[in-house]
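INFO batch 0412 | record 1 of 1 | parsing
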Amino acid sequence: MKQALKEAEKAKARGEVPIGAVVVDKDGQILARAGNRCEEDHDPTAHAEVLAIREAAHMLGSSRLLDCDLYVTLEPCTMCATAISFARIRRLYFGAYDPKGGGVDHGACFYNQPTCHHKPEVYGGMREQECADMLKAFFEERR
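INFO prediction complete | emitting tokens
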């Protein structure tokens, strides 16, 4: 999660919502890392999770990231939860919970839907306060 937080800091420095994600293999080696790039790329799908999944899939030469884990600083939205499912991520670790936009433990609760084909193991609340504080400070600065 420490590396995901570093990616979130980089995103914040670029004026993006500070969310970071890291994909690791079964041995804990980092395959890909990313921070949000929605504003920079003019792309509403350029969430940290999606970007990291794309990079890891390209690196492995496969659309399936079997035996890979994803660390992300905020509970994924439904779009990202779906991408995580389609990529067959083994475990999802996230920091802050997102009652307004989350799609894992809040909102659509995508992994509990009958249309979900793959549910990763989910572990929320990792370094939760640190992740939440970064987001809160970012939005307070914008007001």
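INFO post-check: The beta strands are 20-24, 30-35, 69-74, 91-96, 121-123.
INFO record closed
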